[in-house]
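User: I'm writing a tutorial on reading structure tokens. Could you give me a worked example: one chain, its sequence, then its tokens, then a sentence or two explaining what the tokens reveal?
Assistant: Sure. Here is the example chain.
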Amino acid sequence: MSSIGTPPERYDVDLGLLGATRRISSAENEAGISVVEHTLPPKALAAPLHRHHNEDEVSYVLTGEMTVLADDEVSTCPAGEFVVKGRDVWHTFWNAGDEELRFLEIIGSSDFDDFFGELAEQMDGRELNEETVPILMEVSARYDLEMNPESVPELCEKYGLRM
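And here are its predicted structure tokens:
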């Protein structure tokens, strides 16, 4: 990947089970589009139910399968396919399969790509639990992202996942 001028700061972080590597920053193009590569191990929930108010997300699955819950509808996206997670839609996703899920998250029109680096810095390697939920909520609020951490236990139990 080459960039004209000074490339923005990259990150390669782990947020619990979800890996996040910024490949293209929204600062690198006038459209404000960013690309973050994510990894997620088998039987893992990526995030609590959440919704974005400023950006759309388009995921392109590279390996494995992504299961998405959006507006109470569950669907599965195999490798080589796209899934759109639009703004203002409550959603989450997970890896229900037996192999690692790897996908590109194309984030439209915002600085949301900074979220993952900031959250990882604030969490400082700690898992999401009662003590760290306030950190998640504080960082999420700065990005106009609503989170429902109470959804995690039910999602994990219902779909046989861990987070």
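What the tokens reveal: The chain has three helices and twelve strands. The helical segments are 114-123, 133-142, 151-159.
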